[in-house]
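Deliverable D2.4 — example input (structure tokens):
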């Protein structure tokens, strides 16, 4: 790969990572600017106008000027934003600086609602697929294309119905919500499969906004809406949906977002096919380096950890407190020298 010359060695580290083994250190996806000036990674590439070529060129400029140390990989993200899964069923995506959203469009609740993917070329799913294919064709031999950031399950229903309405519906007509949720979750293999085929991921491998590379089917799972549910309701609606989504993947990372969702931790950890947890405490809360007991609990349950917010100095001070198996850090540092020094430090146990 043009921008990752030691890609084969990186694959070897990730094979060990998914197998729960350690070669000589925990993994670290570390980037650094080559010219001393960081170039931002393009986000929501081509989402508004559907023209991906300028964004691909912009990403290549980023890749040309970035040092990809350790297990970091040059990977382009094609995304229509956080609510894109809801848009796959007919919602209209609105755009603002740096983000998108879907205005709730199921205002008649669930009566007579047929939930099926809109696969027309001009629909959101069709636009995503065409963008991923264009990106994969351009990127061949240079960089990777990410598996999309998908908010399925109750997150999609929340975007389509509105979070307040969905909370009320869970009490007023739970059986209708459950049928709708089953229908959404049933589309997940088609969505993942369509994206993988468009991106030629069975041949090139899978990665995503999680910095984890996998040679077999992989995605990041999440249910941010779970923070609004009791553990009992999460066991009824969230956990079965996540189990279903994880069941047709070879490996997965769970994006665990917010302290209000901590009541579901034991149930999430019990899902066999979730391999790695990314714990995100949320704005205004202590950073992950201050949650060492929780991190150790996650590891004790047999799950890996993706730690995204530690500085290089914090990693050097604290990485020995955690097991190296299934452990990956992701960060940027100011220079290639500092990136190499961190990788060297991680080999010291």
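Example output (designed residues):
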């Amino acid at each position: 790969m043009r921008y990752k010359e030691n890609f084969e060695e990186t694959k070897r580290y990730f094979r060990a990572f998914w197998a729960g083994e350690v070669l000589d250190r925990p993994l670290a996806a570390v980037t650094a600017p080559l010219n001393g000036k960081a170039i931002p990674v393009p986000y929501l590439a081509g989402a508004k106008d559907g023209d991906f070529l300028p964004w691909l060129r912009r990403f290549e400029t980023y890749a040309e000027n970035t040092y990809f140390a350790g297990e970091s990989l040059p990977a382009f993200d094609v995304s229509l934003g956080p609510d894109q899964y809801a848009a796959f069923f007919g919602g209209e995506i609105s755009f603002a600086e740096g983000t998108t959203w879907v205005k709730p469009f199921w205002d008649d609740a669930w009566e007579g609602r047929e939930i099926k993917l809109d696969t027309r070329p001009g629909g959101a799913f069709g636009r995503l697929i065409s963008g991923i294919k264009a990106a994969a064709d351009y990127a061949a031999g240079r960089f990777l294309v990410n598996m999309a950031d998908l908010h399925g399950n109750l997150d999609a229903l929340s975007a389509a119905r509105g979070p307040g309405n969905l909370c009320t519906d869970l009490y007023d007509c739970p059986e209708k919500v459950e049928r709708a949720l089953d229908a959404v979750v049933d589309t997940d293999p088609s969505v993942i499969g369509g994206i993988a085929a468009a991106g030629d991921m069975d041949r090139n491998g899978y990665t995503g906004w999680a910095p984890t590379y996998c040679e077999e089917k992989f995605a990041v799972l999440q249910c941010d809406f779970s923070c609004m549910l009791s553990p009992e309701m999460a066991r009824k609606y969230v956990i079965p949906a996540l189990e279903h989504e994880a069941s047709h993947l070879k490996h997965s990372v769970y994006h665990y977002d917010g302290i209000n969702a901590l009541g579901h931790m034991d149930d999430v950890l019990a899902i066999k096919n979730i391999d790695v947890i990314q714990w995100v405490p949320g704005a205004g809360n202590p950073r992950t380096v201050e949650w060492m007991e929780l991190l150790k609990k996650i590891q004790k349950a047999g799950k890996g950890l993706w730690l995204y917010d530690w500085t290089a100095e914090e990693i050097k001070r604290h990485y020995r407190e955690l097991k190296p198996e299934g452990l990956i850090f992701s960060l940027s540092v100011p220079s290639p020298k500092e990136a190499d020094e961190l990788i060297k430090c991680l080999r010291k146990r």
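The mean pLDDT is 93.
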